[in-house]
Amino acid sequence: MVYRVTAFGIALVFVGLGAGEAAAWGNSKTLNRTALSGKEINLYDGASVNPDCSNAGPVDLRAVSGPSHGKISILHAKTFPHFTKENIRWKCNFRKADGIKVLYRSTSGFKGQDQVALSIHTYDGASYSITINVKVE
Length: 137
Prior knowledge:
The protein has one helix spanning about 20-25, and strands spanning about 5-10, 30-35, 40-45, 60-65, 70-80, 95-105, 110-120, 125-135. The protein is mainly beta. The chain has a single domain (about 5-135), classed as Immunoglobulin-like (Sandwich), CATH 2.60.40. Strand 7 (about 110-120) and strand 8 form a beta hairpin. The longest helix is centred in the N-terminal third of the chain and has 6 residues, at about 20-25. It is elongated and about 45 Å long.
């Protein structure tokens, strides 16, 4: 199953990483999350911004696999960027920007492991893969 979302102001920000930092961890990242069975959690959110906090252009985000035991929703939403203090865009963390959220909800009653893989392509030609392991309790 493939989800495709193209939007302005979408991000390469993932759990505290901005687009510049994303390059530091290479083209792939694996993260772990915990969810309660049947309850929705935020797997990903972010906003792609320039140093002046303006929109940095469209980003294409796709779910390339999973989840096997639930569903995800990909939403355009205002969200706070997550740049580190060393990043010139750190000041943008204090205002919401147009971005994207990926929400996850397991099948009610399911307990165990699930996984979602995301593919992200930026306006400036960079690409990233993020695998999110979800422990459902």
